[in-house]
Amino acid sequence: MHLYAAGFNAWKQLEFSPLEDSTEEPDDIAAFQKVLSDKLIEVQYADLTCTIVNTSTGLQYAGFDGEGIECRLKEGLLSSTAAIAGNGQAYDGHGVITQCAPQLTSTEEEGKAFSGMHDIIQLVAYETGFVALSRDGKVWTWGDERYSATLGRETTISSPAESPGLVEDLEDLPSGKIKKIAAAGYTVIALTEGHDLYAWGGHPARQPILHMLSGNPSPVDVEENDILDCSVGEMHMLVLTTRGDVYTIGENSNGQLGLLSQKTVEWVKVPLSPRGEAIVGVRAGQRSSFIVTKNAHPT
Amino acid sequence: MPTLSQKTQLLKHCTEAASTIYAECTELLSAKGQHDQVTVTRTSLVGCGPALIDLLSRQANIVQIIYQNNLRAITTPPVITTGDENPSSQQKYDLALKRLEDIASVAYSKFYAYVFKDLPVCWRQLYTDARILNFCLILLKSPYAVQHKADGGSSNDAHGCLDELVKTLDLTLVLAGAAGERRGRRWIDKTLELLHIIWLAESEGQSIDGDSAADYDRPAKRAKLVEIHGISNMHSVHIAGATFSTNEPFTPPVMHPVRKTEALSIEEFQTYMDRPHDPKLGPKPLILHNALGEWPALSTHPWSQPSYLLSQTFDGRRLVPVEIGRSYVDEGWGQKLITFGEFLRKYIDPTSLAGTRGHTNPGSNGNDDKRRCESKSSPENSKDTPTPKPTAYLAQHQLFTQLPSLRNDILIPDYCYTSPPPHPTDARIDQPELDEPLLNAWFGPPGTISPLHNDPYHNILTQIVGRKYVRLYSPLETARLAARGKENGVEMGNTSMLDIGVLEGWDEAPATGSSEYDDEEGGTEARVDNDEDLIKATMNEKDIDAFKAVPFVDCILESGDALYIPIGWWHYVRGLSVSFSVSFWWN
């Protein structure tokens, strides 16, 4: 398998083996570039400053070599059922979802606990809140009520912004239940079993990544494609279609779209079709993008 | 080389900033390694995490190195310019600029993620330090860093660079409050002071003697300058005497005049507050006529003259946050950072600027300057649409911390050194005692509106330029004034849903406009939804009659007046002409 990356690289968070001599200040990667090959590649974690990939020989890191990563991994803070929001709050899911103190020293204060959400398979954070997905496809949101569009639901006295509330618009969708969620910045996306992509969110002072973005979860049209995988960064988004193409949209200030343009408001197909490889997954860091491929078997 | 000393000082000032940032980061990073948190103060960068500190430290180091190289280059002619440099050093320079922009944008995203009062100060300092380094880099490529030959071709470059330099620091002052103990506001104020002296000398092409800002104290000299440079290409020439238009499109009737008196002594004013007619209500509003005495803003440094205000703002280059829209409760209302020159020219009074050569539109300088200065787009690059111009209001802004020279044109009224009574009905409103009064500037064209609201302080509202209508309702009437609640997570309980202008028939009900995005830093802030439709729909004639039955007092403030607004009094303020007021909150 192979990992391609583009985007923000100030801490060499896209470089798994040093590409050039290390005294130079690392520049961003403007077009998708192969950064890792291994029998197994799973992007486990990708944030602003570092990337963690699961390989056949164990975890591999790229990026800022902070001491925190190891212990955060041990504490399960970098798992798929834990997330760190931009306003510094960390949440953790163990049957009961717990809100931790802003800093990563999770011992100093006890958190707020939320129950009532069972069998959570994914917990993600956007800038000011959280989204949880259960095995049976239910989606909950909670966070700062000033950015209510990212909640994707009505807030009421009985269902306030700060406590998990069900996103009812995502119940009984025509193409099946939600199987994957992703969130970053002020955007949340969700993918159904039937390959439909839904999105909601937006920031009152910023141009949204998708012009259709609002506080109501709505289907996203990517040139009429079915969507296999999806991910979202602070101000960009990328999807993998069932045809095996990757499309990106949004801000490109750090090259995170892997394109030459400064930004795009329409979906653009990424010009990446490596010979003998098939694209199997996509992942966005806050300001970067990753594409995972595997060698196609000639059958 | 008259300005050499200032230029040298400024370069030294920048070198110091880069080296102190580098030292501070290095210290934090090494302390982190030893699990030694002793040196960590509340105001340090430590909360930003080691990754960002590391990135900042690398950029600080690069700026240091570039400055050292530049210093060496200056001593040996020919002077290095952008075009002559080898590509790799230019690439390094560009990458450092980009990284500083990245750091600032990461910090800036935190300004939104937190409610401002909860925002850890480290993010404001990170933003500030990144912008300071940013300034250092731009300065190096500007004519203000090295002695340029006085060839005509460089003046446009100078304008473009100056725009960028001023903008970089103003963004920091306005958005981040220029946080940080070792540099912060102090560093920026000094930088702007030096830059102002250098810029004045460069643009006038003559020696500077002493405090250049004091030129305005010598009208005779100024007149002479005008004569000398009258036909030359000097953009700092003032048309002495041109004042803002006094045109008043609409004048509301004053129905229940506020009591008016000649200026009181501090003792008399204390007595006025201590012995109210109605002890339950406390002191009532009072106009103090001719209370502003010999304020320079009303005499030697006339705020009524656009040329004076431009002279204090790098010819209008300084950025100020203005509120766009009729009233902050309207749909489509938003805050925007624009240059002071654009604010004057586009929104305040186009006619008064017709004769001046004030630098009011850096955006029109052409792209060459921009490229040369590696500038980002100007904050006012939104196209000039021919749509009806919205009202813009420089309101409730800490203008005087940003522009200390204007602060020196006004005096804190003696009345603010009295001890006023507590809130008449609700002690929870009373705030901890202020060390000194809070100053706010209120500068706008005719028709600006502050909707009916109350403040948690006593207020002396001083009128410096133009006229304002003020209507006041007593705190005892609060129950009848339809206070708002929490709206979209923003507490609006001190603002009424009643739109006085609409209810009195002075204004059309505001249209519910479509919102417009502005992803520039300092763009539209959290918007407040409007309830006008709701009000219109739910307010029947009975309600309107009930509103009209609520007693009030009102007045029109003239230049030189001060209005005492006691704590808790609801007030509606409406600019009638071009108007510049300053409020002083105290307790």
Automatic annotation (TrEMBL), chain A:
GO MF, one example: guanyl-nucleotide exchange factor activity
Superkingdom to which the source organism belongs: Eukaryota
Coiled-coil annotated residue ranges, if any: none
InterPro entries, alphabetized: Ran_GTPase-activating (IPR051553), RCC1/BLIP-II (IPR009091), Reg_chr_condens (IPR000408)
Any one of the GO CC terms: cytoplasm
RCC repeats: 137-194, 244-295
Cited PANTHER family: REGULATOR OF CHROMOSOME CONDENSATION
Protein's name according to its UniProt entry: Uncharacterized protein
Species assigned in the record: Xylaria hypoxylon
TrEMBL record, chain B:
Record domain JmjC: where: 392-587
InterPro entries in the record: Cupin_8, JmjC_dom
Region Disordered, residue ranges: 352-390
Family annotation (Gene3D superfamilies): Cupin (2.60.120.650)
Biased composition (Basic and acidic residues): 367-383
PANTHER family found in the cross-reference section: HYPOXIA-INDUCIBLE FACTOR 1 ALPHA INHIBITOR-RELATED, TRNA WYBUTOSINE-SYNTHESIZING PROTEIN 4
Protein name listed in UniProt: JmjC domain-containing protein
Lineage: Eukaryota, Fungi, Dikarya, Ascomycota, Pezizomycotina
